[in-house]
């Protein structure tokens, strides 16, 4: 039996019993639509969740912290971060730049003679790992007592709502004004009396409203060290709160982080969090796909039932085909091909319906986000080429597997009995 004969027999048999074929195809359509829609939901959840994480910062960055004093994870646990630590980290292959962070100790902070709640971090503005574009102003010099203030914090100092669109223009008035801090230090080693010192810090720059530093104040490292050494009465030792590292490539982040851990420090990176999150979202997508596949597997019983009914109705046809010289393989091909067509057509239509459902649901999501005055729109259902191919292949495979048992049954029909029954 050549290919043309096979196509003619399959198409004519399906058209002859079009009502039953249509009902069977509808079952496959429902199943393939379910699996297509649920998997596109999983893809959307995965992409949106990971995208939000990536927006929190640079995926190539790693934050290094000292190990807890009670850490039993390694004998090499590092209790401090100092200049020696910086030299160690610089030598790691894959490190592009790094910037130490120093928590500036002070007792009180005042703005316009009003006490304010804030924290100040010292960093090296010459390092590209610390720099980002400012909304207003410029970065201070390394030896200046000037600060960069976060947009949200600046708004709170001026009693502005940082979510108000007008705040972006009004916050500029804080430039060139000063924040005054007070800090205490011992007059000399061994004495209990404290000397209170004051330092005026001029605001020279404001971060953008969407900056990750929106609630922070940053001071040049040299000025931060002067305050730190004065408070701790130590001219030599400075212990950093953290060190931010930028890797030269995303491919090197994992190896750099492993080497840092080997040195005894603890780390945090969006890359490692993203990897863990990616595994979780993949499992969720697989679970959604499993739920969708159940309905498609149920439709396979419909295909099998249609093929069995077709055998009972076509005993004479099968007998005649065998008398004309068709072998067992040819009989199997006919019924498997019919089941394959049902599965493929059902999957194809299911994909189109899935596209329509995804469009409607994404549109509803956009209307909801618009009603809540959200600036960005989210596509919760995302279709990839792999998803289209997978749905078609899976529905076709279900058709083939459903047609195998009836095909074997048809090929084993006895010719004499088949013609005698008819």
Q: Tell me the Rg in angstroms.
A: 35 Å
Total strand segments: 12
* Distance from first to last alpha carbon: 24 Å
- The residue-averaged pLDDT reads 82
Q: Please work out how many helical segments DSSP would assign.
A: 12
Could you state the order of secondary-structure elements as H and E?
Answer: HHEHEEEEEEHHEEEHEHEHHHHH
Envelope shape: elongated
What's the structural domain tally? Answer: 2
Q: What helical percentage do the residues reach? A: 40-55%
Structural class: alpha+beta
The poorly predicted ranges are 70-75
Beta-strand content estimate:
15-25%
Largest sheet: 12 strands, mixed
Your description of this structure?
By secondary structure, this protein is an alpha+beta fold. The protein folds into 2 domains: 199 residues, no CATH class; 198 residues, no CATH class. It is built from 12 helices and 12 strands. Strands 1, 2, 3, 4, 5, 6, 7, 8, 9, 10, 11 and 12 form a 12-stranded mixed sheet that branches. A hairpin with a 2-residue loop joins strand 3 and strand 4. Helix 8 runs parallel beside helix 11 and helix 9 packs across helix 12.
Q: What descriptors fit this protein?
A:
single chain; 422 residues; alpha+beta; 2 domains; twelve-stranded mixed β-sheet; 12 strands; 53% helix; elongated
What's this model, at a glance?
By secondary structure, the chain is an alpha+beta fold. The chain contains twelve helices and twelve strands.
């Amino acid at each position: 039996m050549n290919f043309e004969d096979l196509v003619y027999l399959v198409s004519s048999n399906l058209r002859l019993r079009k009502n039953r074929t249509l009902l069977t195809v509808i079952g496959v359509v429902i199943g393939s639509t379910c699996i297509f829609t649920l998997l596109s939901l999983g893809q959307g959840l995965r992409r949106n969740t990971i995208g939000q994480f990536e927006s929190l910062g640079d995926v190539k960055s790693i934050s290094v912290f000292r190990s807890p004093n009670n850490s039993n994870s390694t004998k090499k646990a590092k209790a401090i971060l100092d200049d020696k630590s910086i030299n160690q980290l610089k030598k790691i292959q894959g490190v592009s730049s790094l910037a130490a962070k120093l928590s500036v100790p002070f007792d009180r902070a005042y703005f316009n003679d009003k006490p304010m709640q804030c924290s100040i971090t010292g960093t090296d503005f010459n390092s590209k790992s610390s720099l980002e574009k400012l909304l207003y102003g410029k970065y201070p010099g390394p030896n200046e007592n000037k600060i960069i203030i976060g947009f949200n914090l600046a708004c709170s100092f001026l009693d502005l709502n940082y979510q108000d669109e007008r705040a972006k223009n009004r916050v500029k008035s804080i430039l060139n004004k000063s924040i005054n801090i007070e800090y205490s230090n011992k007059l000399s080693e061994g004495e209990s009396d404290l000397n209170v010192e004051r330092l005026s810090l001029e605001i020279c720059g404001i971060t953008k409203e969407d900056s990750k530093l929106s609630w922070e104040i940053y001071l040049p490292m040299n000025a931060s060290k002067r305050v730190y050494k004065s408070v701790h009465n130590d001219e030599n030792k400075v212990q950093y709160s953290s060190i931010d590292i930028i890797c030269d490539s995303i491919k090197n982040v994992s190896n750099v982080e492993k080497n840092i851990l080997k040195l005894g420090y603890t780390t945090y990176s969006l890359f490692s969090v993203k990897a863990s999150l990616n595994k979780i979202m993949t499992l969720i997508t697989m679970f959604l796909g499993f739920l969708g596949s159940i309905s498609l597997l149920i439709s396979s019983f419909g295909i099998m039932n249609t093929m069995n009914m077709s055998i009972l109705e076509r005993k004479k046809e099968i007998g005649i085909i065998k008398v004309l010289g068709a072998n067992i393989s040819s009989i199997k091909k006919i019924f498997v091909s019919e089941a394959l067509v049902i599965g493929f057509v059902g999957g194809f239509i299911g994909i189109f319906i899935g596209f329509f459902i995804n469009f409607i649901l994404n549109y509803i999501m956009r209307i909801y986000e618009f009603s809540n005055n959200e600036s960005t729109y989210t596509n919760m259902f995302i279709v990839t080429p792999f998803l289209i191919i997978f749905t078609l292949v899976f529905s076709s495979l279900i058709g083939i597997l459903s047609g195998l048992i009836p095909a074997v049954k048809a090929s084993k029909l006895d010719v004499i009995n088949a013609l005698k029954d008819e």
